[in-house]
Each structure stands twice: as C-alpha cells, then as structure tokens.
Amino acid sequence: MKEFKEISPYDIDENVFKMIDKDWMLITAGKMGDVNTMTASWGHLGILWKLPVAICYIRPQRHTFNFANRYADYTLTFFEKQHKDILNFCGTKSGRDYDKIAETGLVPLETPSGSIYFEQARLVLECKKIYQDDMRAENFVRPEIAVKNYPKNDYHRCYYGEVIRVLVS
Question: Which residues of 83-118 are buried (b: 16+ CB within 10 A; e: fewer)?
Fold first, then answer.
C-alpha cells in the first residue's frame, strides 16, 4: 500500500488555480460502505474565520449532494495526470447508476477520522463542514453569470470545510 504523510495546510506549495481548474479533484463524502464521489473543477482554498478552509460546490441533482448533506466531513482528492480517466468517469457517470469506485479501480482508504480518500491520490484534504449555503439568483451582482451557468435554476450548495488533515504521497 502506498504511504501517505501528513503535512500542514500551510505547506501545500502548489498552484491552487491549476489544481482545481485544470487538474480537477474528487469530492468524496460518506464512510466506508456508504460513500459517493464526484469530479469537480470549481472550488476554493484559503483562510476564513482564522481557519484553513476548503470550499466545494455541489448541485442538488448530483448523487454526492445527499452524502455531503448527511455527513459532517468530506475529502478533496487530487491525482497525477495518468488518472485523468478516473476523473472523467466520475464526472460523467452518476453514483445512482454506477459503482464509481469499483468501475474505476479506485482503492478507498480511511483517514483516522473515518473520511474516505483513495490510494491513487497525490494530495488529500480532509475537511470538517463548518458552514453551508445555497447560491441564489438574486445574489448575483452580474446576472449574466447565473443565466449562463444555471439555465435550469439548479444552483450549487456551497460547503465550507475546515481543513483538518492534509495527506501527500
């Protein structure tokens, strides 16, 4: 089994814009035996309320949405380029119809807190939810962004998580 080492969130030395937008990540919520994961290319890493925070976004029709609401934690998992096919699959197939973990060969592992991440990962952020809110049309200062991104009015829920553990391989 691959070895992971824990580091401080302050020791992440990568370009987070590239990591999230170009490399993508898996958002995973649940516990072993009751888990779902999805690909995301929207998110934020930074400091909020004097805490290291990761923010992720999930639309209500995504299967992962139910898991993110049911569980108090989630992980954001980043991979090397050779695993882009896994991210493509997990971003185009629903956990309602496919066992994404089995179909892609992902090997689930548990953090000491019981959150799920994957052996193929290069970087894992374990997050404990501290705030959540739904995006709303009336809050867009530039309404054309809402029109372009939400033609079905299926606004994302924003999950703010304190980064409680960072693992690197």
Answer: beebbeebeebebeeeebbeebebeebebeeebbbb
- 5-168 classified as CATH 2.40.128.20: no
Q: What would the two tokens of residue 89 be?
A: 């699959």
Tell how far CA 38 is from the center of its chain: 7
Q: Nearest to residue 26, comparing CAs of 14, 17, 38?
A: 38
- pTM > 0.90: yes or no: yes
What is the separation of C-alpha 85 from the centre of its chain, rounded to a whole number of angstroms? Answer: 17
The helix or strand, by DSSP H or E, that contains position 57, with its residue range, turns out to be strand 51-58
pLDDT in tens, 42-70: 999 999 999 999 999 999 999 999 999 99
Nearest to 84 by CA among 22, 126, 29, 168: 22
Residues 164, 98, 153, 27, Cα dihedral to 10°: 10
For the record, the structure tokens of 139 come out as: 């809050």
DSSP structural state of residue 9? G
Q: Determine phi and psi for 155, rounding to 5 degrees.
A: -65, 145
